[in-house]
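Possible regression after last week's pipeline update?

I re-ran a chain I had predicted before the update to compare outputs. Posting the input and the new output here so someone can diff against the archived version. Not blocking, just want to make sure nothing changed silently.
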Amino acid sequence: MRYGRGVMRRTLAVAFTLSATVAAAQEGSQPLVLHGFGSAGYGKNGTDNNHYDSSDPRGDYRHAIFSLSVAAAPMERLRIRGQVMHVETDEEGEPVAELDFAFGEWRFSDALRLRAGQIQQPFGIYNEIFDVGTLRPFSFLPKGIYDSGILAEGLNGVGVAGSRRIGSGWGLQYDVYLGGLQVEDEPLNETIGGRVVLETPVTGLSFGASGYSGSAEDSRHSVLGAHGEYLAGAWSMRAEYVHAWLHGDVKVDTAYAEVARRLGGNLQAAARYDWSEQSHPDMARTSADEHKDVGLGMNYWFSPNFVTKLSYHHVDGNLFAGPEDGSPALESTTDAVFVTAQLSF
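New output (post-update):
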């Protein structure tokens, strides 16, 4: 059973997704900024009937997305942002469009910015750049944290954010938010959460913690996480751990570690281990509650804005790999190959 669905990396992330720093710097000379990013690929696995991400036994090429992000600065302190995504995923290959976020931000100073509307949910490393494939080494994000229903991309409410230097080589970034969000098909009310990131004097090294809690119909949904990131030279290394309490009694533990290195020229090699397990009271754990994904990848970067990716994944467990119709999985292991092209501008 599925329990439901961010220094160089930050500089690139804000450039591609119109984050506060870049847009604010462009307010005077370029009040309207437009960016987009997309992904399309093919996935195939060797099971009889398991599906895993965009792979199935017959081969699946119907998973294409394109997102358009716009930021405007009609006043010196005011910035407005929005993003829509167009995705092709259903059985008939019909396109689906959705709003990721749309909000206004008033900048009092670098240390205090107020946001209101459908804001992005700040959590961990990747949640605010969820669909930007050119900012990660694998075609898809670690499933236990970012594709399991633990998080939402947008939150209807208000938030404050800021950053400041706190010493020689040290920096602090923070986000705090309040409102309601949709996790899978479950609305969460009275949600409060935040994230803090500490930048160290070591170039490219940062650590952070995130968390939030919201009220469901008859229980609370609470999530806590910690992450570390190192990006310098040819290396990129990231790791995260999350513990979640869902529906009042389901507990989830999930973590991943990934490393990637440029090999010279345009090639990049990558490896990732993604692990998840969930527990129910008074129920024995089965393969449907477990997930282990060992992934190996090789990427060819035509430019920082266009990359092709080839990856192999060996998956143990059926938490995320299984029949689409919800029937019991015939096989507890899945071997899948993905070929993807991802772009941004």
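Follow-up from reviewer: compared with the archived run. The CA atoms of residues 221 and 246 lie 5 Å apart. Marking as no regression found.
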